[in-house]
C-alpha cells in the first residue's frame, strides 16, 4: 500500500484556529520558556480577529500552558477564580 498524502483529521469546533494569527507566526511566542516575556504574544493576540474564541477554548479546556486569547496562564487562572 502506497500513501501519496497525509490526511489531517480536524474537528469542526477547532476550525477557528485556521484564522488565528498565532497559526501564521509559530508557537515560540505563545509558549515561551519559563520566566520569558509574553509581551509579543499578547501584542499579536490583540490584533487577532478570533481572540475571544481562542480564550473561550482555553478556559473551556483548562489549558494550563501558553498564551491563549491574549492571557497568560496566571491571568487565565485568576479569571477562573474570579468568575466562580
UniProtKB/TrEMBL annotation:
<comment type="function">
    <text>Acts as a transcriptional regulator. Probably redox-responsive. The apo- but not holo-form probably binds DNA.</text>
</comment>
<feature type="binding site">
    <location>
        <position position="54"/>
    </location>
    <ligand>
        <name>[4Fe-4S] cluster</name>
    </ligand>
</feature>
<feature type="binding site">
    <location>
        <position position="22"/>
    </location>
    <ligand>
        <name>[4Fe-4S] cluster</name>
    </ligand>
</feature>
<keyword id="KW-0804">Transcription</keyword>
<keyword id="KW-0805">Transcription regulation</keyword>
<dbReference type="GO" id="GO:0046872">
    <property type="term" value="F:metal ion binding"/>
</dbReference>
<feature type="binding site">
    <location>
        <position position="45"/>
    </location>
    <ligand>
        <name>[4Fe-4S] cluster</name>
    </ligand>
</feature>
<dbReference type="Pfam" id="PF02467">
    <property type="entry name" value="Whib"/>
</dbReference>
<dbReference type="GO" id="GO:0035731">
    <property type="term" value="F:dinitrosyl-iron complex binding"/>
</dbReference>
<protein>
    <recommendedName>
        <fullName>Transcriptional regulator WhiB</fullName>
    </recommendedName>
</protein>
<keyword id="KW-0411">Iron-sulfur</keyword>
<dbReference type="GO" id="GO:0047134">
    <property type="term" value="F:protein-disulfide reductase [NAD(P)H] activity"/>
</dbReference>
<keyword id="KW-0004">4Fe-4S</keyword>
<keyword id="KW-0479">Metal-binding</keyword>
<feature type="binding site">
    <location>
        <position position="48"/>
    </location>
    <ligand>
        <name>[4Fe-4S] cluster</name>
    </ligand>
</feature>
<feature type="domain" description="4Fe-4S Wbl-type">
    <location>
        <begin position="21"/>
        <end position="78"/>
    </location>
</feature>
<dbReference type="InterPro" id="IPR003482">
    <property type="entry name" value="Whib"/>
</dbReference>
<keyword id="KW-0408">Iron</keyword>
<dbReference type="GO" id="GO:0045892">
    <property type="term" value="P:negative regulation of DNA-templated transcription"/>
</dbReference>
<comment type="similarity">
    <text>Belongs to the WhiB family.</text>
</comment>
<keyword id="KW-1015">Disulfide bond</keyword>
<dbReference type="InterPro" id="IPR034768">
    <property type="entry name" value="4FE4S_WBL"/>
</dbReference>
<dbReference type="GO" id="GO:0005737">
    <property type="term" value="C:cytoplasm"/>
</dbReference>
<keyword id="KW-0963">Cytoplasm</keyword>
<dbReference type="GO" id="GO:0051539">
    <property type="term" value="F:4 iron, 4 sulfur cluster binding"/>
</dbReference>
<dbReference type="GO" id="GO:0045454">
    <property type="term" value="P:cell redox homeostasis"/>
</dbReference>
<dbReference type="GO" id="GO:0003677">
    <property type="term" value="F:DNA binding"/>
</dbReference>
<keyword id="KW-0238">DNA-binding</keyword>
Amino acid at each position: 500500500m502506497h500513501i501519496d498524502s497525509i490526511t489531517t483529521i480536524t474537528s469542526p469546533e477547532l476550525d477557528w484556529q485556521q484564522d488565528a494569527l498565532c497559526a501564521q507566526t509559530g508557537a515560540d511566542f505563545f509558549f515561551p520558556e519559563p520566566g520569558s516575556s509574553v509581551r509579543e504574544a499578547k501584542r499579536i493576540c490583540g490584533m487577532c480577529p478570533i481572540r475571544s474564541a481562542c480564550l473561550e477554548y482555553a478556559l473551556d479546556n483548562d489549558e494550563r500552558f501558553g498564551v491563549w486569547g491574549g492571557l497568560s496562564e496566571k491571568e487565565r487562572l485568576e479569571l477562573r477564580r474570579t468568575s466562580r
